[in-house]
Every structure is written in C-alpha cells, then in structure tokens.
Amino acid sequence: YSDAVLAYLNTAGNTVEGLQAWLASCKVLAANEEGLVRAALQGPESNDLILTLHDPTNPPPDGWGQLLVYHAGPTGYALAYQLAGDGIVNLLKAGDLNNDGQADIVWADTACGAHTCFSTLHVSSWDGAAYQDWMEGTDPTIPSAEFKFADVTPAGAGQEIIIHGGVIGSVGAGPQRAWTETYISPQGGAYSLMSIEYDPSHCLYHAVLDANDAFSAWSTEGFDPAIDAYTDVISDTTSVACSTTGLKDELNTLKDFARFRLVVAYAGAGRIAEAQKASLQIKDKALADAAKTFYDAYRSSGSIIQACRDTASYAKKNPAAWQFLEDWGYANPTFAATDLCPLD
After folding, report:
1. What does the DSSP 8-state code read for residue 341?
2. What is the reported pLDDT for 344?
3. Which of 29, 192, 208, 250 has the smallest set of CB atoms within 10 Å of its CB?
4. What sign does the CA torsion over 43, 44, 45, 51 have?
5. Are 307 and 290 spatial neighbours (Cβ–Cβ below 8 Å)?
6. How far is CA 296 from CA 68, 191, 195, 310, in A?
7. Separation CA 105–CA 97 (nearest Å)
8. For 190-199, how does the pLDDT look when each residue is reduced to its tens digit (9 = 90+)?
9. pLDDT digits (tens, 9 = 90+) for 43-78
10. How far apart are CA 46 and CA 73, in angstroms?
C-alpha cells in the first residue's frame, strides 16, 4: 500500500480526496476519514499527509496496522516515515506538541487479547532531516488505555501526555485500580514519566501497596512517610477485603503486616520504644515472631540491615509470615520471603 499510495499521489489529476475514497473502498483506511490527516510537519506551510491503515482481511479490534507519513515537496510527495504496529495503529496527535519548533507524531499501537486491549504509546519528532523516537526509555504499555493532551504542569514544555488505564478484564488479574501516568517534555526534550497517580480504591490491600512504596523509598525519603502510611492502614475502618483467593481474616492479617513494617520503620527512625509497642500489638503469631526476631536482632547488633537479614532467615523457614501476600493475581506484585524486611 505504501508504494501504491505514493504512485496515486504523484499521478497528475489525482487528489487527496480521491485517495481517501479509494482507500476507504478498499476497507484499509483506519477509522474511515480519521485515517487520513493533513498536517504541517516539515514547516508551517507544508501540506503533508499521515495515513493509518489496517489489514482489511482482519479488521479492528483484531489484526494489525501501520502508519505512513508522506511529505509534500516541489515535485510531489515522498514517503518520509513508515511504521508497522503489532496491533491496530491509532494516530493520537500531530503537530508541535512540546513547543520546540518541530512537529511531533503521537500514536498508539493496540493489541487485544481475550479480555483486554493493551496500548503502547509512541512519540516521533521531526528534526528537519528524519523522525526521531521522542520517548525516554521504553515506550509505555497500559491496558485499557485512554489518552489525552493538556498543559498541566510547568515542569514540561507545551502539552503533557496523560494516560489513564490499568485495569485488566480478567478474574485472574486480582483486585485492581486504574491509574494515571503523566509524561512531560522537559525543555522540549524527549517525553519522560513525571508521575503515576492511582485512582481511589476501597481495597485495604491497595493501601498496603501504597505504604510499601513509601517504605521502599526509605533510603531517600527516610522512614516518616512509611510510618504515616502504615499507621493509616491500621486505623482504616472503611476499606474492605478484596482478595480473590479466599484469604482468611484478610483485614486483620494485612493490619498485622502493617504493624510489623511499623516495627522496622520505627527502629529505622530511631524510635525504639514505639517499635517495641507496635511489636506487642501484633496478633498473628507468624508476624509477631517475625517482629520479635527483628527487634531482638536490632537490639543485639544495632543495625537495621542485620536485623532484616536475620528476619529474612526466619521468613524462609516460616512462610506463614509472608505467603498471604505472595499471590494477589497477575496484575499485582509478587511477594517473597526476602520482601518481608527488604532493607538489605
């Protein structure tokens, strides 16, 4: 099709409108008229074309597609860019998105499974000679993704790319919550992830995951954010049980896990009396023994790192202290014995 389109465009008497009608009759033009977009890509006066096509023998939501970019020149059109998708290709935005004086093409490559569609975001930027990948790192892939563009922060130039999604339509994925990812173009540079913000959830498990994230940042943020987060988990009276694997006494077990992590965080913050108090409040025997192992090791060695090593050894011999967090569905993080006290 790329060569046939080029030949059509460069044949005297043919028009862009005629091209659109021809491709639509072939059932290859994605989203009908939205599959052919006029865009000023080389400069403010250029009359360039972007085509998104799909396999007419396997139409959306299945199948695959491609994106074609034709630049207009003094002697006709030339194929400037061609990309094949793993799934259906959708053009999301074309133009100078980040105010750097160069045109950008933003598109999504969406492949669908039995329950859920996964979309990968791509950004390409024209530098005057070629199109460059304008995403920092790996292009993000999000299930059930919705895209929008807005200027929401001064940290990035021009408009930010905002993706909302994250929910997989399968029971085996476990309890889920959607989230929003925001990508910025710092000073016109390649787009990079600025933030991830989760939607509100009624599951206590998700509050534990947020507290675990705060705990993981202890080396840069200290232990106070984790202490606050685990304290909130323990005092939560509105969140509910959400396990899809039949976990018994879920809410109390998760709160006892939060108390164990408080023991570690309090010790890391030098608040020993509070660490001991939290340890004595744990009702689950395996977690209470884990807390005692940590507390005794810390008092003996004076090192939270060594105390976590001793606790990891205990956890490997006593899986009841952590296995309740091991499998919450494939959309959620796994958990192992070394994750019970991961400061080493």
Report:
1. S
2. 79
3. 192
4. positive
5. no
6. 65, 48, 39, 10
7. 8
8. 999 999 999 9
9. 999 999 999 999 988 877 788 999 999 999 999 999
10. 8
Rounded to two decimals, the pTM is 0.86
With 0-12 CB in 10 A as exposed, 13-18 as middle and 19+ as buried, what is 291? buried
* Whether the bond into 61 is cis, omega within 30 of 0: yes
Residue 33's pLDDT is what? Answer: 58
Per residue in 246-292, pLDDT (tens digit) is 899 999 999 999 999 999 999 999 999 999 999 999 999 999 999 99
DSSP letters of 159-219? Answer: PEEEEEE---S-GGG-S---EEEEEE-GGG--BEEEEEEEPP-SBHHHHHHHHHHHHHTHH
What is the secondary structure of 297-315 as a DSSP string? HHHHHS-HHHHHHHHHHHH
Do residues 123 and 106 touch, judged by C-beta distance below 8 A?
yes
Structure tokens at 220: 């840069």
Band (32; pLDDT cuts 50, 70, 90)? low
CB 42 within 8 A of CB 126: yes
In whole angstroms, how far apart are CA 225 and each of 214, 228, 289?
Answer: 6, 5, 25
